[in-house]
Fold this protein.
Amino acid sequence: MTSLASRIDSLPWPSLLERLDSQGFATIGPLLSVEECAALTALYDQPEPWRNRVVMARHGFGQGEYRYFKYPLPDAVQTLRENIYPQLAPLANRWQQTEKFPAAHSDYIAACHASGQSRPTPLLLRYGPGDYNRLHQDLYGEMVFPLQLTVLLSDPSEFSGGEFVLVENKPRSQSRAEVVRLTQGEAVIFAVNQRPVKGTRGSYRVAMRHGVSTLHSGSRHTLGIIFHDAG
């Protein structure tokens, strides 16, 4: 099998970026192999490499739990962060109408750390029957990269429910929901907070939130890749 970096580089980025620009999300995959998914899932119950564990019910986030990686990140997680970011940075700059996102992820992370956001944000999430994740945005501080991705690590035949949900809130309009069903190892890239939309009277911004519907049976693990660090 080709390296993960090579797989990322060979993705059809022009069409993916076009879908991201037009609808706020795009699926890519299969990105990780079954073996890579299993290796990441197996980390969850290990004592390393974690900086924090969050039980969602304690904070009103939903039910289920997740764990944030600490530095240094596992190789696959670091590769995803370093190699996908440069593909997204030009779109991020256009969305934000700025050039504040440098071409290399290492430069962006250095800027995050210089601003006081130095805690790594990639995470593994685990859901069991009855678990869910309320609609939210992963912001973590003033420095926010406007795109992130989630990779489904579990085989969807081994659980029911637990769909990834995106909700778009347009000004003066009712909300619109999108259910994104993924295969094992497939990823969805999506807007973290807001994205620009062209209207008849110019561009305006719509807010995006994401979550996970209630899992009915089985277990579900996902990997979240957030490109900014936390304060």
About this structure: The chain has a mean pLDDT of 94. The longest strand covers residues 202-212. The radius of gyration is 17 Å. Residues 196 and 205 are 4 Å apart (CA to CA).
